[in-house]
Design goal:
The protein is mainly α. It contains seven helices and no strands. It has one domain. The longest helix has 31 residues. The chain starts with 8 loop residues before the first helix and ends with a helix.
Length: 187
């Protein structure tokens, strides 16, 4: 097993995007108190993840473990193919949503769906562990549900379903991955 100062970069990236999903989408139709509570909860989880990453890095160094798992992954063509496909799908989807005059809320639903799909791309194309499919499957589902909701009178709730729930799913998934990494370091 290898680790370095950047081994947990995937955790930080996932947590950052999860926090953005929560902060940007926690709004109406929620009351301001509920929206603020969700944002604060997202921030607290994010800060706890950063602290945990720091502790995990120290634990890895204390065991004399070196290397960089994420850097090895980034070098793979499959990583860049997956990332390029994600960006292309988001851009094309947003253009289609705009051309169809769909509600603006459909954009966050589409983004959640594509972000969920890109993790499956990592698993299939880049060889990420299959265990990542379990916590990230809800992202794609929240996106699909939000797309369906965007065609109904419940459209105002799409940011909560596809944005906030997806954000907390990303935060939970990164926490799960971090706990798995810590368990590996402790053995």
């Amino acid at each position: 097993m290898r680790t370095s100062t950047t081994m947990f970069i995937g955790v930080l990236i996932g947590a950052s995007f999860g926090l953005v999903f929560v902060v940007v989408n926690a709004d109406s139709p929620l009351g301001s108190s509920a929206a603020t509570l969700l944002r604060v909860l997202g921030i607290v989880i994010f800060i706890a993840l950063i602290g945990s990453v720091t502790a995990a890095r120290r634990l890895g160094r204390s065991k004399g473990v070196e290397g960089n798992i994420e850097a090895d992954l980034v070098k793979k063509r499959a990583y860049w193919l997956t990332m390029g496909s994600e960006v292309a799908l988001i851009v094309v989807g947003r253009l289609v949503i705009g051309a169809l005059n769909a509600p603006q809320e459909a954009n966050v639903a589409w983004m959640a769906f594509v972000v969920g799909l890109h993790f499956f791309g990592f698993i299939v194309l880049a060889g990420w562990p299959r265990r990542l499919a379990v916590p990230l499957l809800p992202l794609a589902l929240f996106g699909l549900v939000g797309l369906a909701m965007s065609t109904t009178p419940a459209v105002a709730w799409v940011p909560l379903v596809s944005g906030v729930l997806s954000g907390f799913t990303l935060l939970a998934a990164t926490l799960s991955n971090l706990l798995w990494q810590l368990a590996r370091l402790r053995t």
